[in-house]
Every structure is written in C-alpha cells, then in structure tokens.
Amino acid sequence: MDVKQAIEILTKKGYKTTGRRKDILAFFEQADGYRTAKDLLQFMEEKYEGISPDTVYRNLHLYAEMKILENTELNGEKHFRMKCTTHHHHHFICSSCGKTKEINVCPMEEVENKLPDYRIEDHKFEIYGLCPSC
C-alpha cells in the first residue's frame, strides 16, 4: 500500500486527510520494516513541535483498524508497518532493528487439514530473529 491508496481509504470512510495524517503515512511508506509509536513521535516532533502522543497513538490505531497499517509485537511493544497489498506472503522480522523480509511460504493448507471442522477467519505467520546486518 502507498500513501495515495491509504488516503483513498480514509476519504471513503469519511476521515479528513490532514497534513499530519499524510506525514504519518509518508513515514511508514518510507520505513524499511516495522516501527514503533516512539519512532513516529520522534519523526513528527521535528515538523510538529509539541505534537501530542495521543494524536500519534490515535492515528496509529485508526490506520490499523482500517487495515492501512499492520502491527506486530516485538519485545513487548507494538510495532507498525504499511500493509502489504500486492500478494499473500508472510515475514521474517528482525527483533533488533525491525527490518522485514518477505517469506513466500504459508503453512495454512496444513493447518486447515488439521482443523477440518473449524472456520478459520484470518491468520498471521511471522518468524523472528536477527537480520544479517544485526
């Protein structure tokens, strides 16, 4: 997903696309991997002195709810990244720097075979470790 697609989603749902919201989206579009609310707050404070952490958290949760951002938990803290929309895949996530690498393997066919009477609504498969740079 890119900023333009995200703005279209916001507009269709009746949300204003303010400069702050666009800057938050641009931050995630340029990020290489998952980032924390703290990372975003530091970025935003450079342009919007005194920006409220509540503003940052409120927008992060709005974007996650609208499936613009996806999130995961690393080291007990939520991390966010722009949602991937090109094709179905999963991620290796560096537990040190948050960088991601696509994994084009999905275990769901085997899982569905093991749970024949269950209705699976969604899934998430992530592998954590250290990237070559870390």
Automatic annotation (TrEMBL):
<keyword id="KW-0804">Transcription</keyword>
<dbReference type="InterPro" id="IPR002481">
    <property type="entry name" value="FUR"/>
</dbReference>
<keyword id="KW-0678">Repressor</keyword>
<dbReference type="Pfam" id="PF01475">
    <property type="entry name" value="FUR"/>
</dbReference>
<keyword id="KW-0862">Zinc</keyword>
<keyword id="KW-0238">DNA-binding</keyword>
<comment type="similarity">
    <text>Belongs to the Fur family.</text>
</comment>
<keyword id="KW-0963">Cytoplasm</keyword>
<keyword id="KW-0805">Transcription regulation</keyword>
<dbReference type="InterPro" id="IPR043135">
    <property type="entry name" value="Fur_C"/>
</dbReference>
<dbReference type="InterPro" id="IPR036388">
    <property type="entry name" value="WH-like_DNA-bd_sf"/>
</dbReference>
<dbReference type="InterPro" id="IPR036390">
    <property type="entry name" value="WH_DNA-bd_sf"/>
</dbReference>
<protein>
    <submittedName>
        <fullName>Fur family transcriptional regulator</fullName>
    </submittedName>
</protein>
